[in-house]
Amino acid sequence: xxxxxxxxxxLINGDRVDIIVNQGKISAIHPVxxxxxxxxxxxxxxxxxxxxxxxxxxxxxxxxxxxIYFDQPDLVGIAGGVTTIIDAGxxxxxxxxxxxxxxxxxxxxxxxxxxxxxxxxxxxxxxxDMNKIDDQSIYQAIKRxxxxxxxxxxxxxxxVIGENGIxxxxxxxxxxxxxxxxxxxxxxxxxxxxxxxxDLLATGDIITHCFNGKPNRILDQNGYLKPVIQRALIRGVIxxxxxxxxxxxxxxxxxxxxxxxxxxxxxSDIYHNNRVNGPVYSLATVMTKFLCLGFSPKYILDCVTxxxxxxxxxxxxxxxxxxxxxDITIFDIKNEKIEFFxxxxxxxxxxxxxxPVAVIIAGEVIATKEGREYGxxxxxx
Length: 381
Description:
- By secondary structure, the chain is an alpha/beta fold.
- It is built from 13 helices and 15 strands.
């Protein structure tokens, strides 16, 4: 007998399907006309709710012991409809053992982009001392946790690098050659200038905070894409949203759309403070902002499922397909007027919002915070 059947689920393209789960994997997807399926556990969505591969948030800060950017993984993960989260540099080689031990206890799947500073972010200026970049400690950490550490993180903005200019990124690229892992680079206030940063990046590298409104942004004063970013995109560099507290501008995102520049990943840069007090709140909130900007629901979902899984090399994640992990997000798209603001205080009004209702991980159905607040019932038959 099957472990779990999810009946009458809506896909974003309008199809209705029944999904069978066995031993933590999707074993079959059938049209809803196939009515004789049985399982130990069944959930009937009655064609009311959408279903997708489990959402992936590619930029979070979820190391609970961090003194600055901290949170509980399951509060930024499954509580908000997200089945997989990547901590983007909170932790360096010094604390990776402790971080890994904590993550083994969570229901949300957690991975790490290891900070190139061995201390991680215990202060805001972790790359102001080049001695904190210890190649051997990074290589040893990756060797210990090859399935947990999926990339490297370098925060390249003035408050982080001190007087070191572009040198931390040069070191990061040298370390990357040895490790073979993707590199995520935070852009913020200069120095270093974006031109220096982007010209060092190669295929598979990630620029996060791509729609920030600071002078070091991806657009020039006339609203055109800077040539250095054009070259980077041609080489296969990825743009990641990394919304955060001060790294998202509506006007930059809108102008980027007008000239045909779209993110490869939509991520939140969530941690305790901006989850509780805003402006992030959840990955679903960030996704809803892109609905407000005119992005199609399918494009948004692809950025937090298929595209994120492919960019981050997460095997078995992000795809609602036979043989993939049964990480699933159940959600609604509700017609509701909602106002948003960005880092510059600009306000936009949306008419629809993503509401994550529940997640399924390893056959367990877990209601989200919003699902409970909206009084949504998922009856088990």
